[in-house]
Structure formats: C-alpha cells, structure tokens
Amino acid sequence: MEGFRVLEIKKSVFENNDREADKLREELKAEKTFLLNLMSSPGSGKTTTLMATIAALKDDLRIGVMEADIDSDVDAATIEKSGAKVIQLHTGGMCHLDAGMTKQGLEGLGTDNIDLAILENVGNLVCPAEFDTGAVKNAMILSVPEGHDKPLKYPLMFSICDVLLINKIDVMPYFDFDLDKCREYAKKLNPNIKIIPISAKHGDGIGEWTDWLRSQVAEWNK
Amino acid sequence: MEGFRVLEIKKSVFENNDREADKLREELKAEKTFLLNLMSSPGSGKTTTLMATIAALKDDLRIGVMEADIDSDVDAATIEKSGAKVIQLHTGGMCHLDAGMTKQGLEGLGTDNIDLAILENVGNLVCPAEFDTGAVKNAMILSVPEGHDKPLKYPLMFSICDVLLINKIDVMPYFDFDLDKCREYAKKLNPNIKIIPISAKHGDGIGEWTDWLRSQVAEWNK
User: Fold this and answer.
1) Among residues 141-200 of chain B, which lie with CB inside 8 Å of chain A?
2) Does the predicted interface ipTM exceed a cut of 0.85?
3) Which of A91, B37, B76, B220 is deepest in the core (most CB within 10 A)?
4) 0.80 cut: is pTM over it?
C-alpha cells in the first residue's frame, strides 16, 4: 500500500492569476519555503531528474514534491521511494497548473518543514508556460531525442524559464542534436537562461544543477 | 523565398464543437477529401513521419498538409520540399485545434484537388485529445525515448486515436522501452487501436502505415 496522498485539485476561482502568484510567493518567502516549477514535454525525464536531484540534496534540504500527473500515480509511487515527502495532484485532465491550483497542492503537501518544494508540472510545453504558478524559479527539461529546434517551436516556455536542463546527453551519438544551435536558439529568446546538459540516468551534470538549486534555495530561505 | 502561405487562425465562434466536427466530416465526404489528424508530443517525429508518408503516397494521392505550428515555420519549410501542397497555420500560442479552426485551415489550403489532407496538430498530448477536429481518422506518434508508460499518463489521447505509430524504434537498444507493455497499456484503453512500430528516419514500418492509410483514403473517397 502506498503512503502518499492523492489530492483532487479544483479549478481556481481567482480571476487575476498574476496577483495570486505574487501573493503565493510572498507567503512562501515568509515560510522560508522555496518553490521550483519543473516543466517539460512528456517523456523528457522529469521524474528521473527529480530522483537524481533528491538523492543529491536530501541530506542538506527537507524536500517535498507535488506530482501534477494527469491520471495515474506512477510518478508519485517512484518519487516516494526517494524518501522525499510527496503528494499526488489529480488535475482532472487539466493541461496546466495556475497559482490557485499550486496553492491547493502546497496546502495538501504541508510546507511547515519543507525547505524546497518542487512542482512536477503536467507534461506539456505549451499551456504551463502561460500560467505563473507562484514558483520562485522555473526550470524546464528538453531531452536530446526531442531535437535542438524546440526553442523555435515553443518560444514562450524557453522565455519564462530560469534554467534549461538538456537531458539524455548520453544518447547524443544516436540523434542529430546540435547542442550549440540549441544554446543559440534558447539564448536568443532568453539571454539569461542557464543551460546545463545532464544525463539524469547516469549522473552527468547533476552536480552543477543541484549546486545551482542549493544556492538558490539558500538565498531565498535566508 | 518560400512558396507556402501562412494563415492566422482565429478562435472559433461555435459553441458546439462536436456538431461542427460532424458537419465538417460531411463536407469532406461530399468533396472526396480524407482528413487525417496527426498528434504527438513535441519532438516525437511528426514532421519526419510526414515526409516519409508523403514520399510513399505522392504518386497515388494528391496530398495537402496543414502545419499547426506554434510560432515558427520550420516544419512547413521542410514539408514544402516534399512536393505536397502545404499551408502554415499560426494558432497564436493556442494549444490545440478544434473543428472551426481546422475548417479555416482547410479553406486556406483549398481541398478541391486534395485526396488526403493531413493536419499536423500542435505538439501536445493533452489538449488536442479533447477536441474533435472533424478528421476522418486520428493518428498519434509515441517515440521510444518518451517511454512505454505514456498510455498510463495521457490516457485520453490513446483512447481517441485509431492508429498509434511507435516511432524511433531504431534507437530501442539505447532506451528502457518495453514494446509489449506499451501495446498492453494502449490496448487496455483502446482495444481497437492499430499499433505500428516505425522508424521514420530509416523507413521501417512505413510500408505498413501507408498501406493502411491508402486503404482508408480509398474507402472514404470512393
């Protein structure tokens, strides 16, 4: 029997999402909880990346994860094994989370003893980019098999993210993925975006990524 | 200079999308045009699959393609080289197409001399599944790097498709992709779904896929 809770998320009642998001960030600041919003396409490796992230940070930070999966609980069941606190958010087929929905999730998770809360957003490069969740930082994963042209096709997502993790670099030899072009396209949209190539499966780049995340959490929670 | 047209798609004004979709199918039947709705995640190989499909069918069928790309025209420029008639639909960041939007696209493309019209839908496994476009058949692509658990996570998409193309089987050795499990999950949601493993890049399975599509078009347009 699994120990994590499943929370049915209701549609938000707030008209002004940006205001709600700002309010949520203020509350998180007061509670000394850092919220990371993690976005990507389906199958780019969000859950594997989270597992590697938790393994690297769990001795330093108290971590909670909100899994905004659409209809199953495979990810929550996986994350639970990492030892992090985890809650499954059932979004009833919704294609994104807004600040009101994220707040419901945080209340369900409980942030009293959480330094780092991570929202694993719905697998979708379109809709989640349009809604500020109230997160302190936005991160996205693009995996090598998806192709280096994705910044051209989903520009908003690349524009609003603080970090771009380029995952599955271990399979680079088998795909026509041009890392330099990908960097160039992403930086053109968002000159400040931090780009870290990783292999969540084999561990490459996870140190650089978790060092960055650790320092961001320390800065926010101090 | 590129020869294809770019059409700005407006939001639909129709309240009842299902009724509009049925009406559009009736019009397509009368015009002897078969409409295929092709859906997938970003980066699963929709455009490469289309190129292989057009190459296999262009001597038998007059083909038109609607590229519902979000913000760039990389796909339309690629497809244009295949010799098929192509139009780029700019959806202004919208995450799906409904029947009214598809109808605008078909009018822009012109279906008078088209036996097979293909809509390359927005790269998204969530929202496009919720809207009947008026297509005669729905096809989706799942690529091996995305993982075999995707039917569990995006069940609606797998439920509404007539065909599931499992693409990038050439890289199967480098990923933990269980083809039998993927079949089992998909068939449980949709016992009638036709599953064809392909490598759009190398041509495997393209014969089976295009034979199926050719027979569907012949049946509809007779």
Assistant:
1) 143-147, 149-150, 152-156, 168, 171, 174-175
2) no
3) B37
4) yes
